[in-house]
Design goal:
This protein is an alpha/beta fold and about 300 residues long. The protein is built from 8 helices and 10 strands.
């Protein structure tokens, strides 16, 4: 059961914003205000904000309520019972979204003010692209950079932007590596977004990976080699709490459940990784300064 509130009545100017920003939250009180404020501070201003809370036990609902009358906040949904699934929240947010583009801005991350201003024009200019994504600064619970942790590993001299077909995106970015490793780094075209499948609702690690694979069947992607997202690593992350063998078994189980669903873009399942769908599931480890860490799908 949930309660749904409209913060502002629809108007002609607000009926179809360019971007719908979905902020799904669960118990991220320490980070939530910074997340919302980083969205509201975007230099590109044609967007709506949809705030979702999945029955948090902390003070998250109070923080969310403080934004009720902000003109950018179009919807607030406070669940009275926990849905048990991040992807149930994604599904709810997508059903409420009105923009031609969607940004699922995870509630413990935050963004550079130029995130939308950089990605929206690129998608506007390329109707065949289903998504555009940036790189990420890896930060700790206090927002401090984590030394040596770089999941983008940009090649010296590589162009700032690169375009991929859906097949090329799958082969280079979604098959052996987890280069689209955080929803907060992605802006996608709502008309090309895949349906959230029933199998995803019970997934804890692989649901986002499956979402991007399915999206790649609908269109291509644009990579922007700039770090415009701040991907926070902290002890309250579910994937960090479930370390070791339990996490490995859970990931393996989820992968087997989605493995037979489709071989992405004619790539046979024998060439697909055997486990580890969610990039940040690995326990963070110190990496020598200057070294790159590209999160692998295979062990």
């Amino acid at each position: 059961m949930s309660t749904t509130h409209k913060a502002t009545p629809p108007t002609a100017s607000a009926s179809q914003p360019a971007v719908s920003v979905i902020i799904p939250n669960y118990n991220h009180e320490p980070y939530l205000r910074q997340r919302i404020d980083s969205v509201l501070a975007q230099t590109f201003g044609d967007f709506e904000v949809i705030l979702l809370d999945d029955c948090s036990s902390d003070s998250s609902p109070t923080i969310i309520e403080s934004y009720r009358h902000h003109p950018k906040v179009s919807r607030i949904v406070l669940n009275e019972q926990n849905s048990g699934s991040t992807f149930a929240q994604w599904k709810r947010g997508l059903a409420l979204a009105r923009g031609r583009y969607v940004w699922i801005a995870e509630s413990d991350d935050y963004a550079d003010p130029e995130f939308l201003a950089t990605l929206v024009p690129l998608l506007d200019a390329d109707p065949s692209a289903a998504m555009a994504f940036t790189g990420s600064h890896m930060v700790d619970a206090d927002g401090r950079p984590i030394p040596g942790m770089d999941w983008d590993c940009y090649r010296p001299g590589a162009p700032e932007t690169e375009t991929y077909t859906g097949r090329l995106l799958t082969m280079r970015k979604l098959l052996w590596t987890a280069d689209v490793y955080n929803a907060s780094m992605v802006l996608f075209r709502r008309s090309m977004a895949p349906e959230i499948e029933d199998v995803q609702l019970s997934m804890r690690y692989c649901g986002d990976w499956l979402f991007w694979v399915n999206m790649a069947q609908n269109g291509g992607a644009i990579e922007v080699r700039r770090k415009l997202n701040y991907f926070r690593q902290h002890s309250a992350k579910g994937s960090q709490q479930d370390g070791g063998h339990h996490a490995y078994r859970q990931q393996s189980s989820e992968y087997r459940r989605c493995d037979g669903a489709r071989a992405p873009l004619s790539v046979t399942s024998t060439h697909r990784p055997r486990h580890a769908c969610r990039a940040h599931v690995e326990t963070p480890r110190k990496i020598p300064a200057g070294a790159c860490h590209t999160p692998r799908r295979n062990p």
